[in-house]
């Protein structure tokens, strides 16, 4: 897939690839914009630390898959309402 307004692969990044098991990584959402959402469609894990529940998205590839771009944008639109 070519770099565009919907997909960007920064293959020169020192962390690329940041996730294993995904052939084309969309770096457009390098830091997940859904992190703050408890019910995101990804596959996060949760840990307890110092009495707090912390979301761990290390193994989640949802926002990095090109086919999920529209769903991420729609979720962000709904979240703003």
Show the helix and strand layout.
Layout: E1 45-49, E2 52-56, H1 69-80
Antiparallel strand pairs: 1-2
Keywords:
2 strands; 12% strand; two-stranded antiparallel ribbon; alpha+beta; 81 residues; single chain
Describe it.
The structure is a single chain. The chain is of the alpha+beta class. It has one domain (1-81). Helices cover 15% and strands 12% of the residues. It has one helix and two strands. Strands 1-2 form a two-stranded antiparallel sheet. It starts with 44 loop residues before the first strand and ends with a helix.
Report the strand count. 2
Major β-sheet strand ordering: 1-2
Structural class: alpha+beta
SSE pattern: EEH
What is the C-alpha radius of gyration, as a whole number of Å? 14 Å
Give the overall form. globular
Biggest β-sheet strands, sense, barrel: 2 strands, antiparallel
What does the average pLDDT come to?
A: 89
Helix content, binned percent: 10-25%
- Secondary structure tally, helices: 1
In brief:
By secondary structure, this protein is α+β, with helices and mostly antiparallel strands.
